[in-house]
Design a protein that fits this description.
Strand order of the largest sheet: 2-1-3-4-5-11
Shape: elongated
Number of helices: 13
Strand content: 15-25%
Length: about 325
């Protein structure tokens, strides 16, 4: 294994200088930094600063990689449930666990990302919120340098599993229930982000349902934004009969727009977040247990770390109407 001493010798500097460069100390010249980092690259050196701190009782170290929802000012309940469920299962499986936010590493190349996780002594990663445009994460998965579980993804290989509900079937279930409970075939569907695998599955579901039920389907992307969904509803909902949304936040935005226009249209959401209980309209929604999804993802990652191969794990969903009485303690 390459040591810091080897890097110092290769760069022609003192060991302390290498340490200063790697730890971003001030008062180190750009020329020296360049020389040290070139030596690091040539030797493929990975600083292992945290390995010695790991407890011998732990069976591995994993990372939770989260992409925060920046489209809303509301507290992201989903991410908090993810973290809670994942940490609980990590403790049960005696896995040391860190949380990494995607904004910290999104500008890295796959080589830089690999060195970053290796330097943290990470052997497995759970990825939440990955989109089709996250090319470097796709490359990281393809490299199979780490055991990886992707929540709500579609990439499988020997070292990578996928965990999540069946979004295609769940979208059909909640939309069909709402349409059958009401009158109308002119449907406004407010979808999520265009570059999302989950959004693609939900749009495919709505298009298939539209053909089967002979609906007039009108689709606009709301990017999981309450504000954008509100604006879409203000512009288009008056001429539609039912509004179907790809997330609860967008359903709340659409419902508030309808209330402001003083018109009624049935609205349904997707996710089952607590905020839906405060809206007061008891909209149909798909209830996901995000804490259980995260717990199952860590459980699956532990299986991969113990030598098993990647697979797809499907978890159940339910249809509910969120009531205020059901969410208060």
């Amino acid at each position: 294994m390459v040591s810091i001493r080897d890097v110092a010798k290769e760069a022609g500097v003192a060991i302390s200088t290498v340490s200063k460069v790697l730890n971003n100390y001030p008062n180190v010249s750009e020329a020296t930094k360049k020389k040290v980092m070139e030596a690091v690259e040539r030797l493929n050196f990975v600083p292992n600063q945290v390995a010695a701190a790991l407890s011998s009782k732990r069976s591995g170290r994993i990372a939770l990689l989260l992409k925060l929802n920046m489209k809303t000012q509301a507290i992201d309940e989903i991410d908090m449930q993810y973290i809670s469920g994942a940490l609980g299962m990590a403790q049960e499986k005696q896995l040391d666990c860190i949380t990494v936010f995607y904004s910290m590493i999104e500008h890295m190349s796959v080589e830089e990302m690999t060195r970053y996780f290796a330097s943290q002594n990470i052997s497995g990663i759970v990825i939440f919120g990955m989109n089709n445009d996250d090319k470097v994460l796709h490359q990281l998965i393809s490299s199979q340098n780490f055991k990886i579980v992707v929540v709500d993804g579609n990439i499988l290989n020997e070292s990578t599993s996928v965990v999540g509900i069946d979004h295609y079937q769940a979208q059909i279930d909640v939309a069909e229930k709402t349409i059958k409970e009401n009158t109308g075939n002119k449907i406004l569907y407010i979808a999520g982000m265009r570059n999302s695998y989950v959004t693609e599955e939900k749009i495919r579901a709505m298009e298939d349902l539209s053909r089967r039920m002979k609906l007039k389907l009108f689709i606009r992307n709301g990017d999981f934004s309450e504000l954008k969904a509100r604006n879409i509803a203000l512009r288009y909902a008056k001429n539609k009969e039912i509004v179907v949304c790809g997330s609860d936040l967008m359903a709340i935005g659409a419902m508030k727009a309808l209330m402001d226009m003083d018109i009624f249209r049935p609205v349904c959401g997707f996710d089952g977040i607590i905020l839906m209980g405060y809206v007061g309209k008891q909209m149909n929604t798909v209830k996901q247990n995000f804490a259980e999804v995260a717990a199952e993802s860590v459980r699956e990652l532990n299986r991969l770390l113990n030598g098993s191969s990647g697979r797809k794990v499907r978890l159940p969903h339910t249809l509910v109407r969120m009531k205020y009485e059901d969410i208060i303690c």
